[in-house]
UniProtKB/TrEMBL annotation:
Belongs to the BamB family. It comes from Stutzerimonas degradans. SMART domains: PQQ. The lineage of its organism: Bacteria, Pseudomonadati, Pseudomonadota, Gammaproteobacteria, Pseudomonadales. GO terms for biological process: Gram-negative-bacterium-type cell outer membrane assembly; protein insertion into membrane. Pfam families: PQQ_2. It is a lipid-anchor. GO terms for cellular component: cell outer membrane. This is Outer membrane protein assembly factor BamB. Part of the Bam complex.
Length: 382
């Protein structure tokens, strides 16, 4: 049985399996007041169907060229001009989407709860091909011009031919007994297909044949119960130059050499939402709600902000000189990269902000749980 939670996995198990109504979710920390130093300006807003839906989905939009592509849980895929908000095309797939959005090399890619990968034409939204895989797809497919790479819920990596969707190869992992519901989006280079697995390992495969190149354990399950031993890599991987950054739930944040898998540094951490990188620092949204800035060379904590405890934070993103996170009540928080202090806050949508914010140049894109896609910039005095 697989679980995913917007807060702690413990709560998801209690909510699903406990017959008592006495167990209550801990209240999120109250927002602290501060003097805003910058102001966010909304450029446009569009509604994208039903958004993330009632289950825990992470449908993150993708920027490709001058368009941003977003999908909702019901199968609506929309292409929007990222500067003006003008809708270019809409396609209704009429299947439940759970892995979105991948874009590149002329394709827009989504995965479904029915275990399908669907490729659309980037210019028209017309379906190019549809391929069946082993199980539900909970993260966006990746593409490198040669193959489309998808990671399925059962810890399989499957390479599909970019032109037809035919399967080229498949790698079968060994999923943990109990895991979070979800997978991180895989990373694809010209030579390597890389993914984080539910057992706390990172695997790199040759893109041509799917043969293992290296494997590295980045978290060791600990504890007596299966719940305590969950070490999922659900937040996605971040590749910068020759370094791969990865963080696990109830495990560690680790920097790996992408060619060999050798550990360059490691630090205890617990997150289900991934990492961001900027100005020589790694930024983490921890499962507790704390946001941390860590020196990428020494692993020393540069700052820690725990004022957002239990607010179920999104993955962080680096935007201008700031770290951006969303929370369960729909607030977008901007923190200084220097010391983690709050510099701005904006409520986007009361439904919450679960998906990682997307940054493209001077533009920030936020996709709320109810499907509001908003483009923001920093207001600057002329």
């Amino acid at each position: 049985m697989r679980w995913k939670t917007a807060a702690l996995l413990t709560f998801a198990v209690l909510a699903a399996g406990c017959s008592s109504n006495d167990t209550k979710e801990p209240e999120p920390a109250e927002l602290t007041k501060f003097e805003a130093e910058v102001e966010l300006q909304k450029q446009w807003s569009r509604s994208i169907g039903e958004g993330q839906g009632e289950t825990y989905n992470l449908l993150v939009p993708a920027v490709y060229g001058e368009q941003i592509y977003a999908a909702d849980v019901e199968g609506l895929v929309v292409s929007v001009d990222r500067l003006t908000g003008k809708v270019n095309w809409k396609t209704d797939l009429e299947v439940p989407v759970s892995g979105a959005v991948g874009a590149g090399y002329g394709l827009v890619l989504v995965g479904t709860l029915r275990g399908e990968v669907i490729a659309l034409d980037v210019a028209s939204g017309e379906e190019r091909w549809r391929s069946r895989v082993s199980s539900e797809v909970l993260a966006a497919p990746a593409v490198n011009g040669d193959i489309v790479l998808v990671q399925t819920q059962d810890d399989r990596l499957i390479a599909l031919e970019i032109d037809t969707g035919a399967q080229r190869w498949s790698y079968e992992g060994s999923p943990a007994v109990l895991t979070l519901r979800g997978t991180g989006a895989p990373v694809l280079t010209n030579q390597l297909a890389i993914a984080g697995l539910s057992n706390g390992k990172v695997i790199a495969l040759d893109t041509r044949r799917g043969l293992p190149v290296w494997e590295q354990r980045v978290a060791i399950p600990q504890g007596r119960s299966e719940l305590e031993r969950v070490v999922d890599i659900d937040g996605g991987l971040l590749l910068s130059g020759g370094t791969l950054y990865v963080a696990t739930y109830q495990g560690r944040a680790v920097a790996l050499d992408v060619d060999s898998g050798r550990i360059q540094w490691q630090r205890d951490a617990s997150t289900y939402s991934g990492v961001a990188l900027g100005y020589g620092s790694v930024y983490l949204s921890l499962a507790s709600g704390t946001v941390e800035g860590v020196d990428e060379r020494s692993t020393t904590a540069l700052w820690s902000n725990d004022a957002l405890a239990r607010r179920q934070l999104s993955a962080p993103a680096v935007f201008s000189s700031y770290v951006v996170v969303g929370d369960r009540e729909g607030y977008l928080h901007l923190l200084s990269q220097v010391d983690g202090r709050f510099v701005a806050r904006e409520r986007i949508d009361s439904s919450g902000l679960r998906a990682r914010p997307v940054v493209e140049g001077d533009w920030l894109y936020v996709f709320s749980n109810d499907g509001k896609l908003v483009a923001l910039t920093i207001r600057r005095d002329d």
